Amino acid sequence: MLNKLGKYSFGIGDRFAHQGVYQLKPFQAAKKFGTDITPVWNKSHREHITVGSKPESVKEEAEQAIKKCGWEQGYMIDADHINLQNVDGFLASSDFFTIDVAYGIGQPCGENKIQQFIEFNKPYIGGFSVPGSDKIFNLNKNMLREFAGQFLTAIYEAQRIYQYILEKKGEGNFVAEISMDEVDKAQSPVELFLVCSGLAMLGVRPVTIAPKFTGRFNKGVDYEGDLNIFAKEFEENLLVIKYATEIFDLPKGLKLSVHTGSDKFSLYPVINQLIKKHNIGLHLKTAGTTWLEEVIGLAEAGGSALELVKGIYVEALNRFDELTGPYSTVLNIDKKQLPEKDTVEKWDSEKFVNSLRHIPDHPDYNPGFRQLIHTAYKVAAERGELFTGALEAHSAVIGKNVSENILERHIKPLFL
Q1: What does the alpha-carbon distance between residue 214 and residue 267 come to, in Å, rounded to a whole number?
Q2: Which domains does the chain have, with CATH numbers?
Q3: What pTM was computed for the model?
């Protein structure tokens, strides 16, 4: 199996493909601190469609950044949230495939498949223990049947997509992530164990698994939930993953992936402590973070750049349902807290930046404003060269924000 991912890896999205160098600089800084982190450039089919780009553009951007920065370590290109309907466009340029099968959860599964799954898991009926945990994970046939009815179709869909990529790319030429995060209900540690079991039964060999965790992981803002509950659940998940690689035919070093991981500041110290305690890897995926830093940089630049991003917000406000609809499960916007058009048009650079930049205790910070702009990259894309020209004209101030955000607010608290 391709082994470029490393123990720690960090997914970086760049919707307009202008910040590759500034995204890579924090990884170089982390290496100087003694920590190796693999950069993984990611962009989903939905994002490509929205901005009118092609999958190969992600690889081109990454390769240019690698060359300019003299990066000699590994890196990967993630075909983010793909399925059989859109994977073909990513095969040539990607070597990391986030296989999204959340849509299969809750779909009916045939009795023969259910019986096969129950038979495969007979050794664990009655309960099992996981090294490192004092908890007994109870399991019986009814629980297995209930799990199969909820998740087995999604697991079979993961097999179909995985086998298709394997046939096209060949053994050792890609790594796979299985994603089940964009659903309403979190998977328990026992359910995560059974996901691993099902994948192993069907010959699927992922390097990361992205479950749905307890609490809300909204786009671009901090975690909403009980930190103590998350810490307990996350530690149990780490131990389950580690145990699963010992008893099933799964890759050693299989690790958890935290999706919608941008700006989950309150979780980073918890995650940092636990991955080091158990000496296990982690993949964290960000997406809109860089786009938001571009907007912040343009606002800081002032003048026409500030007016440009004000206009993007105003149009996003007018198109609220259209823009937020695709992200409904990962947004929590109180529309009453969104500033009106006339208000924003009077803002200076400082007010706009302070309202958008994710510093939760700043009196101007507005999480609804930030989440709406997170979804507004479609509006920016419609501005075409007006927007991309502004990115180029103000690359220095934007780049400073991009690098500082990734290093200071993400990498340091999470990995260092």
Answers
A1: 12
A2: 8-286 (3.20.20), 289-407 (no CATH)
A3: 0.96
